[in-house]
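cron nightly-structures :: item 1 of 1
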Amino acid sequence: MSDNQYRPDDNREAFPPYPPQPGQGSQGKLVLGNFQQQQQNQRPPQPYPQQPGPGPQPFGQRQDGPAQHQQRGNPQPSSSPAAYPYHQPGQGQGNQFGNAPQQQPPFKPRKKRNKRRIGCLSALVVLIVLIIFGVITSQRVLAFGSAISTQSPLSTQTSYMNTGDRTNLLVMGYGGGNHDGANLTDSLVVISMIPSTRHTSLISIPRDLWVQNPPDSGTFTKINVVYQTASNNGQNRQAGADALTKKINLVTGMDVKYWMMIDFTGFKTFIDSIGGVDVYVPDSFNACYPNNDDAAKDASWRIVDFEKGNQHMDGATAISYARAREPVEVCSKGTSKNQAELTDFGRSARQQLIIKAALAKIRDITTWPRFFSAMDALEQTIHTNMSLADLGLFSQKMDLTDPHTARIGLSTSNVMAVDTASDGESIVVPQGNNWQLIKDYIAKNLYN
């Protein structure tokens, strides 16, 4: 018996007779055994899947089933454009294979290339502008670094702040100008920072501290006079700053190597150049403030009043907020409402707030268009023995927002006492004239 009777779908015209399979005799006889296994072994390999229907279909006809073609062997045009992406019904001249392909206008590819070319040129122009701006900016920055520092702009004396050792910077603020007292350093703050941890401490030195000046001379003055004397009234900035830094080392017991001077007159111009600063005033106070630092020009006073809360300050307002220290009684116009703000410690804290606000404003992207005018103002405002690279990294790493930041003020509430100089001037000295008290107090309160 032939196995063909078990294959009702077999197409004798499509396939030749089967060759003998294992398990059959030479005459093609069926060998008894498992019927399903024989079927699997006896099916020939089919090179292409067989489609139902009477025979071959016309070229281009899809074999997707009755949903696409209702009658086999009679091709119908598809209503779906997706079925024939290059043959759209009703367009062009038809033929036996369907509609002619849609022809694209020859100029469209050229327009796309032109658009790409214009886009590339625009990007190239922007890149060139950025490179030119970068070159100009870098040259201006390097010139700025050379103008404000005794060190080469990109050099470092601190291994680019990559150290765990404490780095100390003395910030000296003076009035500036060409009048008597223009070079008195009325603000003295040591910023001590550990670069690896960003732990920052601020040590305020009273301007009225009574010290020997010059050294080993037997002559005493307030510490704010040291720079004026050593610099020959501002003629030699580096000599004056070096002398004051050495004096600060003796008083505090710290290793202060770096200094930066701030001219308050120039700092006012700088704040105006960046559009003012936003400051949160933590405590309300009022004070008497001179109308002019040069009393020979104008010896009159005015009242300045600051209320607690957020305030936007221009240069003049910011400087008066940072420097105000005289009680209202000096003007004979009432009583000061917050005497604590008028101490050296209170004033030092306010100066730190102004510096913090100025740094925040510089980092604000909206301030960048004022970049060059700000540098012009700063060139006349600050001088330092730190390189521009070190000073920039120092400013970036010091953290004045950390709640553990130490703010150390030397006052009569801890280690200082008020005294009177031989000329009747009010001064401050260590309690019991024990200078070690100052060193121990600072070392104990540093943020390590």
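cron nightly-structures :: done
DSSP finds ten helices and 14 strands in the chain.
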